[in-house]
Amino acid sequence: MTIIYPSPIFGPVHSRRLGVSLGINLLPADGKCCSFDCIYCECGFNHDFVPKQKMPTREEVRQALENQLRKMSEEGPKPDVLTFAGNGEPTLHPHFPEIIEDTLALRDYYFPNAKVSVLTNATQILRQPVFDALCKVDNNICKLDTISPDYIALIDRPNGSYDVEKMIAKLKEFGNRCIIQTMFLRGEYEGKSVDNTSESYVQPWLKTVSEIQPREVMIYTIDRETPAHELKKAPHEVLDAIGAQVEQLGIPCKVAY
């Protein structure tokens, strides 16, 4: 089942990686807006869910978030994290840096122990205001499914030009201020293998992770229905083995099945 999230606030939901998460969706409530068109996206393919509504304004986000945080402070549950996610890429919002400032201030007032997380495909980090804003959040979670341009073109399907080497160079500037998130999967798409669990993919990825030196790595596999129907989960034992190799680099790794 394809998931299109309400906007600008949804949840709280229980995240298998983050705990009790209050979602912040900066994209339209009636469709997707993303700089990738991943074949495993739970929100479906971009062309199937073209939005007619606009992105919420900065003030709409701030007001909706404050209302929900006030309610949760009175009624519960207590959030572990405020998570920017939803119907696409949150950093595409033209006022993303300012919304981060608003969110940090509201978090500090209502739930100072909660974390602020951003799930991003990292396509916008070459824009310095976006990069600087991501440096301010607790969990700056950046996608890096592989370092292979051909695999990225097949699986992540960037909209427009995308230079993975430039992205990696910028990720290195984050260092331990970022978390690398990688989807591992198996199966086929358009008659081509999408298996990125083999050594030919994993070893170059591990080398790059070692060079980036993130604070943490999160690896996971598909958990919900995907728009491409011939995809398969990566086995538990394979994910565990990859996670162990990350740990051998001295970098903490969380594995989600």
Describe this structure as you would to a colleague.
The chain is an alpha/beta fold. Helices cover 34% and strands 21% of the residues. It has 7 helices and 11 strands. It has an 8-stranded mixed beta sheet with strand order 1-2-3-4-5-6-9-11. A 3-stranded antiparallel beta sheet has the order 8-7-10, with no helix packed on it. A hairpin with a 2-residue loop joins strand 7 and strand 8 (192-193). It starts with 8 loop residues before the first strand and ends with a strand.
Radius of gyration: 18 Å
For the sheet with most strands, the description reads: 8 strands, mixed
Percent of residues in β-strands:
15-25%
Strand order of the largest sheet: 1-2-3-4-5-6-9-11
Distance between the termini: 19 Å
Shape estimate? globular
Structural class: alpha/beta
Low-confidence stretches: none
Mean pLDDT: 96
Counting DSSP E segments of at least 2 residues, the number of strands comes to 11
Q: Write the element-wise H/E pattern from the N-terminal end onward.
A: EEHEHEHEHHEEEHEEHE
The helical percent reads 25-40%
Counting H and I runs of at least 4 residues, what is the number of helices? Answer: 7
